[in-house]
Amino acid sequence: AQKITQTQPGMFVQEKEAVTLDCTYDTSDQSYGLFWYKQPSSGEMIFLIYQGSYDEQNATEGRYSLNFQKARKSANLVISASQLGDSAMYFCAMRENSGYSTLTFGKGTMLLVSP
Amino acid sequence: GAGVSQTPSNKVTEKGKYVELRCDPISGHTALYWYRQSLGQGPEFLIYFQGTGAADDSGLPNDRFFAVRPEGSVSTLKIQRTERGDSAVYLCASSLGSRSYNSPLHFGNGTRLTVT
Q1: Which of A5, A97, B35, B65 is 20 to 30 A from residue B114's alpha carbon, by CA?
Q2: What's the rounded Cα separation, in Å, for the pair A64 and A23?
Q3: DSSP label of B98
Q4: Which residues are CB-contacts of A52 (< 8 A; sequence separation ≥ 6)?
Q5: DSSP for A43-92?
Q6: Is there a contact between A33 and B105 if contact means CB atoms under 8 Å apart?
Q7: What is the pLDDT along chain A (115 residues), one digit of tens a residue?
Q8: Cβ separation of B102 and A50 shorter than 8 Å?
């Protein structure tokens, strides 16, 4: 089974609007972390935001916020006031606490912001 | 401060040749990871080092792939007898510690490997 599922291959949004990128995850660990990364066409992977499984508040970082619904195992990324520079691939990833844990990525969502 | 540095940024090689890809992590980061990313896909885990030792190499596709980190800093990913299917972007990442699930990985810009 996929550990990270991103069901939206592509999303379109107009500049200044908000957009939600979906992510669901699968784990039996009680302790885990959820991450979102941005990958522009240049190829670099940029860390955006982190949510821990025990965090009671949804994480926020500037225009990025994470809509964390633990019971549903979802960790959607919300980008407010989209900018043209937000056009990129966005990856959801999970790091489980069991063993030597690496980061497992979803397949990504391509976001295109239009003027 | 300096980020994760990967060299070369691009590598073109002929099928059957040997290649080495280098990664210089962020200073002070003890954990180092190699990932491979094919076009249109998310990064796939290859191998992870904690210090000098490979703590998890379960992602290496076969014995043509090998990685070292002899002094606990710079790492080299080595691919023998390259095949066209090895063509991908190879990403290196480092983090402060491996045992904490809340440490983000910081990635380099990758090496684009093309096997002709």
Answers
A1: A5
A2: 14
A3: S
A4: A31, A32, A33, A34, B101, B102
A5: ---EEEEEEETT-SSPPEETTEEEEEETTTTEEEEEE-S--GGG-EEEEE
A6: no
A7: 679 999 999 999 999 999 999 999 999 989 899 999 999 998 889 999 999 999 989 999 999 999 999 999 999 999 999 999 999 999 999 998 775 568 899 999 999 999 9
A8: yes
